[in-house]
Amino acid sequence: MQLGNYDIVLLYSGGLDSLLAGAILAKQNLDVLAVKFIHPFSPGLWDNRNNSPEFIHHTDLSDWRASVGLDIIKIPIPDSENDEYFRRIINPRYGYGSNANPCLDCKICFMKRAVKIASQVNASGIATGEVLGQRPFSQRRQAIQLIERDAKVEKKVVRPLCAKHLPPSEMENSGLIDREKLYDFSGRGRFAQMQLAEKLGIRDYPSPASGCLLTDPGYSRRFFDALEHNEFSLHTSQLLKFGRHFRFQGTRIVVGRNEVENNILQKHFSSQKIMLEPISTKGPIALVELSSDDEIVKIAAEILARYCKEKDKKVEIRITQCDKIKCNIIVSPAKPQWVEKYLV
Ligand code: SF4
Question: Domains of the chain by range and CATH?
Fold first, then answer.
């Protein structure tokens, strides 16, 4: 994709802090290209079939970003399971945070990509919306230094929200960015950011909740369980987002939690699994591995029956394998306490 020239590339998460960082720089009449990496751990199904970047010119935006001139490029990451990003997620050099979030390794990969994009668009460096001390794992002073060192971007990164707590970047030293107009925010509070947003006329920003499931305790449990069983892949990273997951005798059993999840499980995952669906009553669908024996399939049917509409009655369940109906079986629902033992 042919891109024009920019002064600076912004690592843009879509949250308030990176929006503010972009707005601060745009106010200094800098041309900012906001790069949003579309990674597999955002909520919803990640579709990498069309792996090409999407560019949005600010005049095509319908919100406040149009008025500050923030062009956006969305880039899917990773390209494959061989990609450094994917390898670092499952085997991080600097460990995980409080859940399955290897933020230091992840940011290093983002920085490395951003540097390449900066060179393509003749930008002088990178900006982020980080605030010193906001996140205990990845936004400490030592963590920031380590990320810059590992990604080989020392002095090339400006953090407009907390720049006054940090040594000046090359862009400040050269006068491209006026350091006096940058900020000294720190810590976990968000009041200063909200005030600045108000001052800049930014009102429709997203809530601070993380858009990364690697910070979610439920997803993280399933992530580590999949790693432990040598099952983690890009495909699995998506499956883990949907349904209740059980581990019985080493095999994963997935049961949808609602109609939306049932549809996703059926449409995107069932062709590579054995699918179970109730036919004598209403209820979710369940998936188990193709290699599962009859005992596992029966257990999956009993777990599924536990989540059907009529919880105490026997349920007739249809078993489909590779999109072909294999048989119907009748089972009694498993006891709730028994089911919970196997929940991941
Ligand atoms: S929260 Fe997720 S996306 Fe953000 S740095 Fe950490 S691992 Fe990466």
Answer: 8-199 (3.40.50.620), 242-341 (no CATH)
